[in-house]
Amino acid sequence: MDKRILHLEFGRHFYGGAKQLEYLVNAEAHTGNTEHHIACPEGSDLARQLKGQSCTVHPISYERDIDAMVVQRLKTLIDDIKPDLIHIHSRHGADVWGAITSRLTGVPAIYTRRTDDNESALSRLKYSQFKAVVSVSEGVKKVVSKLCPDDVLQPVIYPAIDTSEFTFSLDREWLNKTFSVPGDHKVVANISQLTERKGQGDLILAMRNVLEASDKITCLIFGEGPQKENYQSMIDRYDLNEHVKLCGFSENVSRILPNIDVLVHPAYSEGLGSILLQAGATKRMVIACPCGGISEIIKHNETGIHVDVGSPDTLSEQITLALEKPERANEFGQKLFEWVQDNFNVSEMAQAYDDLYTQVIQNEQDKEQATKSEA
User: Fold this and answer.
1) 281/212 same-domain check
2) Which terminus of the chain has a smaller tally of CB atoms within 10 A, N or C?
């Protein structure tokens, strides 16, 4: 089936849904029967990244979540390109404004939900505007199914990662110089937004016990977010500045990961965790909490280690064990690589979305034909 898809991605940085969108449109470029159009904010990383690739990018003016005028801009764009389907890839207001735009224009829409945090009962109205709500994990679907009407399709389509993109090899000299890590230190890392639900506070607390076992360890925490000042205060309070460093946001994740000894992800909630896929691509051991969709990647004592949510003491024990037994850590990293490669590949993700597009469009055409026949 020939089809024209309008994708809405209102995130401004190139990770999460934006990166998945790049994988999707490039994978489908080889099929030749789908025309992809991308609506994204002017000046966003996605607008720059996808320019000249196998899709048409439409940068639009958008002033964050409260910009209701974006509906009119989307309607104008839809009048111009006449899509068969709208695919919404993010929140940032895209889910609400996209649902309204779909209702006003009559163009069917689907929405990919990437987080497992709870929403208000009003979300039932939003979900009712979609023909399908895709969850990126079974953990996310458990949340979605509580509010999504039964007549809305609710598939699970795992995100993907292209392991061939991760070409950097071990270069500890670069890591040590860039982030002021002593040459004889082992490295623990966390790479995530600095929010309470990502659990970096537990990691900082855990490092007190880890450093009692050995002081030749550095913990690098990458990311930005509202908890940054609070976490720095914790580091100051416990006199951890020589060993725990807030490094800010980095675009060099694929270069950083091969140089760390263990990735720690003590999140309290998580849709799936793209950083876990990246850890798998670089064969890094992961210690994480089995919340949301995490356990669909990190399987305890198989592809990594689980620790209880909100348990710094258990976390410190597992970090110490991982650093004391590097052969064990390497084995977990290899198993994670194999699991990610087999279950989170780009071609399967793209095919699943293509099948869903076809199903939704065909369903709408059948309904339209039935209506005409009744008339």
Assistant:
1) yes
2) C
* pLDDT tens-place string over residues 218-247: 999 999 999 999 999 999 999 999 999 999
Domain shared by 145 and 187, yes or no: no
Alpha carbon distance 92, 65 (integer Å): 5
CA distance 50 to 59: 11
CATH number, residue 53: 3.40.50.2000
Print the domain residue range for 39: 3-160+345-374
Residue 246 shares a structural domain with residue 325: yes
State whether 325 and 370 are in the same domain: no
Q: Is the pLDDT of residue 28 over 80?
A: no
CA separation for the pair 8, 94 (Å, rounded):
7
Give Cα 310 to chain centroid, integer Å: 22
The residue with tokens 């623990």 is 188
pTM for the model: 0.90
CA 277 to each of CA 89, 128, 281, 297, 346: distance values in angstroms, whole numbers, following the listed order? 19, 31, 6, 8, 12
Beta-bridge partner residues of 35:
4
* Shared-domain flag, residues 177 and 69: no
Q: Which of 276, 266, 251 is nearest to 344 (CA)?
A: 276
Check pLDDT > 70 for residue 352: yes
Please say whether the beta carbons of 112 and 352 come within 8 A: no
